[in-house]
Write a structure and sequence with these properties.
By secondary structure, the protein is α/β, with parallel strands linked by helices. The chain has one domain: Oxidized Rhodanese, domain 1 (3-Layer(aba) Sandwich), CATH 3.40.250. Strands 2-1-3 form a three-stranded parallel sheet, with no helix packed on it.
């Protein structure tokens, strides 16, 4: 009889995440957030692909995943472990975001 542990499920999670994620559907529409469309970030973001995120998770890194969409969009569908901090509220929650691990905003 084989016993399964958490690390056995990471590759399965990565594959399932890839199957349900459609980059075309996830493209941001700047007309929905005009107050942020022209702002320049204080820190230059590093854009990563879904594959890079999955690789980091499989390697054992534990990035904090933050869903910056509206509360309604979050309730409709979200990544299971993601925190919901709507984009307009991110400045109010900066103190809560850890600095000792990667942070992924989507």
């Amino acid at each position: 009889m084989r016993f399964y542990c958490k690390r056995d499920f990471f590759p399965l999670f990565a594959i399932l995440l890839g199957l349900f994620f459609n980059p075309a559907e996830a493209a941001a529409d700047p007309t929905l957030y005009p107050e942020f469309a022209q702002q320049q970030p204080a820190i230059a973001p590093e854009f990563i692909s879904l594959d890079q995120l999955v690789d980091a998770i499989v390697k054992g890194e534990k990035p904090l995943i933050v869903d910056v969409r509206s509360s309604e969009e979050y309730e409709e569908s979200h990544i299971k472990a993601a925190l919901s901090i709507p984009l307009g509220e991110v400045p109010l929650h900066l103190a809560e975001i850890p600095r000792d691990r990667p942070v992924v905003l989507y």
